[in-house]
Design goal:
Blueprint lengths: L7 H4 L3 E4 L2 E6 L4 E2 L2 E2 L1 H19 L9 E9 L6 E12 L4 E10 L7 E12 L31 H7 L1 E2 L2 E4 L13 E5 L3 H8 L2 E9 L11 H7 L4 H19 L3 H4 L3 E2 L2 E8 L11 E7 L2 E2 L2 E9 L5 E10 L1 E2 L1 H4 L8
Antiparallel strand pairs: 1-2, 2-6, 3-4, 5-8, 5-14, 6-7, 7-8, 9-10, 10-11, 11-12, 12-15, 13-19, 14-18, 15-17, 16-17, 17-18
Helix pairs in contact: 2-5
């Protein structure tokens, strides 16, 4: 029986089941509606890659083979509960290796059969093999994030944590937490809600600082695996999507904008992650995300996410294609209250 309220490491645990086959249990508390959150699922897949190389290729590298690139396609909606993984070695190399993975679960339409819900390619490289030139490009987020209280414009994180505000930054409540259960696993700070930020910058761009709080654990820290959850966690951007979608629906169908809010789901179709820098073994408390959407057309969205640490160094880059659809497509015949 799966542990009630497990740690994050337990929630993403992957267990070998034979040659290139593995199992995991996708946790309901990491769901959006009835569907496991895409970033959480990506974290499980990140763990799958680590587990596969430790189990199938234990002598290939001197240090653990960490994912440096993930390219995933979310083909069908996953469900909380048991999941089976199949792994195919595409290339096993001295510096980089690439595997093809499939996440399988019982078909909702064909009883007794497993279907591929998520498929993708993962490229790994051990940290000790990551050698070569490093150079600063001078890149910084533009426009610059709003200022904190310090004279140089930086944020006093101790004050932000203690009082819930610092300069333009304040602690935020994530919208629709009952539906977006996965969003309760972080503590989020930003220069206003989604609508406020969009008015400020004149586009669909969001700034956020976040602390990891799995099951309310105040000692939670961002690790490399947890970063893959963060790159798909941006409640204020979804708040902006909600406003946009509700406004469009109200214009088309009549009625108020508020009556249309919380009736939409934004599933990930494809997700690409580029891991740029390893975090310390013990993790870090704060990470920043810049989330940008350029075009929303015909119910299809784009998202570009850049994750930085307190020193302003890039930790991870992500792009994804998503959809804006009715929330009924998330729940379907499943019962939300079971979660």
């Amino acid at each position: 029986m799966p542990t009630v309220n497990p740690s994050f490491e337990e929630a993403i645990k992957v267990t070998p089941q034979g040659a290139n086959k593995y199992s995991a249990f996708l946790r309901p508390e990491w769901c959006i509606g009835t569907v496991p959150h895409g970033g959480y699922t990506t974290a499980v897949i990140y763990k799958l890659a680590l587990t596969h190389f430790a189990h199938a290729h234990p002598k290939q590298y001197k240090s653990p083979a960490s994912p440096i690139s993930l390219q995933l396609s979310f083909l069908r909606r996953t469900a909380s509960g048991p999941a089976t993984f199949e792994v195919e070695d595409i290339k096993i190399g001295a510096r980089t290796s690439t595997i093809h993975i499939k996440l399988l679960q019982p078909s909702e339409k064909k009883s007794g059969t497993l279907e591929t819900m998520v498929a993708g390619y993962i490229t790994v490289s051990p940290p000790d093999a990551e050698v070569g030139i490093s150079a600063k490009t001078g890149w910084k987020p533009y426009p610059s994030p709003p200022a904190g209280s310090r004279p140089d414009g930086s944020i006093d994180f101790a004050s932000l944590a203690r009082t819930g505000s610092d300069g333009a930054w304040q602690k935020l409540e994530t919208p629709f937490p009952e539906f977006r259960k996965a969003s309760s696993q972080i503590e989020l700070y930003g220069p206003g809600d989604g609508a406020t930020q969009q008015k400020r910058n004149g586009g669909m761009g969001i700034d956020q600082w976040a602390r990891f709080r799995p099951h309310g654990d105040v000692n939670g820290r961002w690790t490399d695996a947890a970063v893959t959850y963060l790159i798909d966690m941006f409640p204020m951007a979804l708040d902006g999507f909600d406003t946009m979608s509700a406004t469009a629906a109200a214009r088309e169908n009549g009625g108020s904008v508020e009556a249309q809010r919380a009736k939409f789901w934004y599933p990930t179709v494809t997700l690409n992650v580029d891991m740029k820098k390893h975090l310390p073994a013990g993790g870090v408390e704060w990470l920043y995300s810049r989330v940008v959407t350029k075009v929303v057309r015909d119910g299809r969205t784009d998202l570009e996410v850049t994750v930085l640490d307190e020193a302003g160094e890039v930790i991870a880059l992500s792009t994804q294609v998503g959809l804006a659809v009715s929330a009924s497509r998330n729940v379907g015949t499943r019962k939300l209250e079971k979660l």
